[in-house]
Amino acid sequence: MAMAVGLGGFAVEKAAAQNAGTPPTWAAPFQRGLVGAHPFGISAGDVDADGFPEVAVVESMIDIVTNIDRVSGPAVINIFRNKTTWNPPDAGFEQIADWQLELPEPLIPRYVELIDVDNEGHADVVVTVGEPENNNLFGYNCGVYVFRFNEGAGQFFDPEYYPSSIPLGRHRVADMNGDQLLDIVCAVDFHANGRAFDNTVRVYYQDCAHPGLFLPEQMQAVLNETGATVPCAVGDFHRQTGVTGGINDVVTWDMQLLSNNGNNPACQNAAYTGHTTAYCTDPWDTYDMVAAKLRLITLIGGTRFDDVATVSWNQEHVRIFKSQGGTTFTHTCTPGVDLYAIDPTFSICNSPRTAPFPLVIPSGISAGLLNAGPRMDLAVTSCDGAVAILLGNGNGTYVFDNGNPAYFVRVDPQPPGPDFIENHQVLIVDLNLDGKGDLVTSNHSAFANSISVVLNTTP
């Protein structure tokens, strides 16, 4: 079933399908151990302002699937400093004690963004806190925690806490009201089903009178569905007449577009209009999503809109949604066009977990350039110990073969076996600034408790 095209008013795509090229080549993976337990959210940003990206990973201290048996002690946000020298590859990261940030027990952080929120040239740390283990919010400080970098001391300030009335999950940092300051958009944690107001996204606008600080949360209702909004994506998906840009829209887990009206005075809350998109398959298992310019296209006025790629846990698919510059996306559920089965048909994974959890649990997705071309590629956590690589054609379609080992990357240095690493999240980031995206995964299982790094060696 094809989806309706919004009336955004732009010309046809002029870019023909590009040759995606051959699959990248990779160095042997290596792992770095962590100081806490159950790593989950992962992000990259330049903390020390040397041009090379650092990597932050948040440790949830609990199995993200069951949300029971939290490990005792503070939750740790590990930040790995990029030493800029990646020869040998496993010498490129170092851990700095002052960059191991803590949130007190019993908090369970979910996601992290490493981004310069106060425009001082150094990446800061933004963390969301999710559902408590016992589901009791009394005395539990869910919300957003911001650790700003102290350039003079070379370490981070104590966190600023911005409360929420609901546990939070995936968040994005972008300018939402056109004042050139970054704001924070949060989805509700997926364990928070049944709570009041959980069919909302939460927005924290930066206070333009006090840059670097944020105003109290604002709730933006999501249409139709109730339940946690799980992931969200932020990007430029539509353009109204007379709006010149500088603002972003929000898309929720089931592809509901909250289009920014674009008439917001500086330092004021944005106003959104909700639009639904008919979802041709069950959206309930959408676990992660990313917004990026997946197509090389020419639009009226020279604007390139962001598209959305989603990954489903149970159905084991990547879905591509193309923005039409209006209020909806196109998606036809056509295999090989905008629907890609991630389940590998050969043995590359570690041994399966016990029921009811499947072996293949794609739960993280990232967009970036993997083979030095202008076409946006995708990396997806496909199963325990491996990442699937989808090579972009430049028109929103991808070259991928789940029966070909060339389209999968082992991120576990050990061969497949009973000790699964459960790589929940993946990040495409150019660690050594050679123009090609490398891979970093957060390995969530208690056995692994690490990140994996795989350098791109494509000539």
The dominant shape is globular
Query: What percent of residues are in strands?
Result: 35-45%
By DSSP (H or I, 4+ residues per run), the number of helices equals: 0
Main sheet record: 5 strands, antiparallel
- The first-to-last residue Cα distance is 41 Å
Unreliably modeled segments = 1-18, 354-358
Task: Tell how many strands the DSSP assignment holds.
Answer: 32
Radius of gyration: 21 Å
What value does the average pLDDT take? Answer: 84
Which structural class best describes the helix and strand composition? mainly beta
Helix content: under 10%
Characterize the structure shown.
The chain is an all-beta fold and 459 residues long. The chain has no helices and 32 strands. The two termini are 41 Å apart.
List the helices and strands and how they pair.
Layout lengths: L29 E4 L5 E7 L8 E6 L15 E8 L10 E11 L5 E7 L8 E6 L13 E5 L1 E2 L4 E2 L3 E4 L4 E7 L8 E6 L11 E5 L13 E4 L10 E4 L13 E4 L4 E4 L11 E4 L10 E7 L14 E6 L4 E7 L5 E2 L8 E3 L23 E4 L8 E7 L2 E7 L5 E2 L8 E3 L12 E7 L8 E6 L6 E5 L5
Features:
mainly beta, 5-stranded antiparallel β-sheet, 459 residues, 0% helix, disordered N terminus, single chain, 32 strands
Short description:
With 459 residues, the chain is mainly β. The protein is 0% helix and 36% strand. The two termini are 41 Å apart.
